[in-house]
């Protein structure tokens, strides 16, 4: 499978139990399950989707405010999810951008539009194809 734009792939390795490590460029991220199921040494994989959305929205709103000289220090983005079954998934993300000061009303609509324009939001709203391939060592399988 060709790598887009020459980027290195993220590499996920099993660390034991229900713990995995994702190597993303020079960053190592631990993913686990909550205590009682796993060791709670990191967020669950599905929680990372919400973290991606929330941080992407925060970045876009911060950049919008900074470009217009609007206050953003102390800005907070809260994100909740609503689950669904069959298949198990997140059915809805509830994103609240809390700005540190009141802004003129015309900015609320613009900031909402900016938040909805971030790539994570667009990916979730418009969907992305997911291609999965299973690779096994061909030489080992042939000689067995």
Summarize the structure in words.
It is built from 4 helices and 5 strands. By secondary structure, it is of the alpha+beta class. It has one domain: 2-Layer Sandwich (GMP Synthetase, Chain A, domain 3), CATH 3.30.300.20. A 3-stranded antiparallel β-sheet has the order 1-2-3, with no helix packed on it. A two-stranded antiparallel ribbon has the order 4-5.
Order of secondary-structure elements: EEEHEEHHH
Query: What characterizes the major β-sheet?
Result: 3 strands, antiparallel
Percent range for β-strand residues: 25-35%
Shape: elongated
State mean pLDDT (0 to 100 scale): 93
CATH top level?
Alpha Beta
User: Strands of the largest sheet, in order across it?
Assistant: 1-2-3
User: Which structural class is indicated by helix and strand composition?
Assistant: alpha+beta
List the quaternary state of the chains: single chain
CATH architecture: 2-Layer Sandwich
- What Rg do the Cα atoms give? 20 Å
* Tally of domains: 1
CATH superfamily membership: K homology (KH) domain
Q: Total number of β-strand segments?
A: 5
Annotation field: number of helices: 4
What are the segments in which pLDDT stays under 50 over at least 5 consecutive residues?
none
End-to-end distance = 26 Å
CATH topology: GMP Synthetase, Chain A, domain 3
């Amino acid at each position: 499978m060709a790598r887009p734009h020459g980027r290195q792939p993220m590499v996920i390795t099993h660390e034991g139990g229900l713990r995995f490590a994702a190597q993303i460029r020079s960053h190592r991220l631990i993913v686990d399950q909550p205590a009682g199921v796993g060791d709670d040494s990191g967020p669950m994989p599905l929680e990372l989707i919400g973290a991606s959305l929330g941080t992407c929205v925060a970045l876009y709103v911060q950049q919008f405010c900074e470009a217009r000289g609007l206050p953003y220090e102390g800005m907070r983005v809260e994100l909740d999810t609503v689950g669904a079954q069959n298949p198990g998934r997140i059915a809805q993300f509830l994103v609240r951008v809390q700005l540190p000061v009141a802004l003129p009303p015309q900015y609320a609509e613009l900031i909402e539009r900016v938040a909805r324009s971030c790539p994570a939001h667009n990916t979730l709203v418009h969907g992305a194809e997911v291609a999965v391939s299973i690779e096994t060592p061909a030489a080992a399988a042939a000689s067995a």
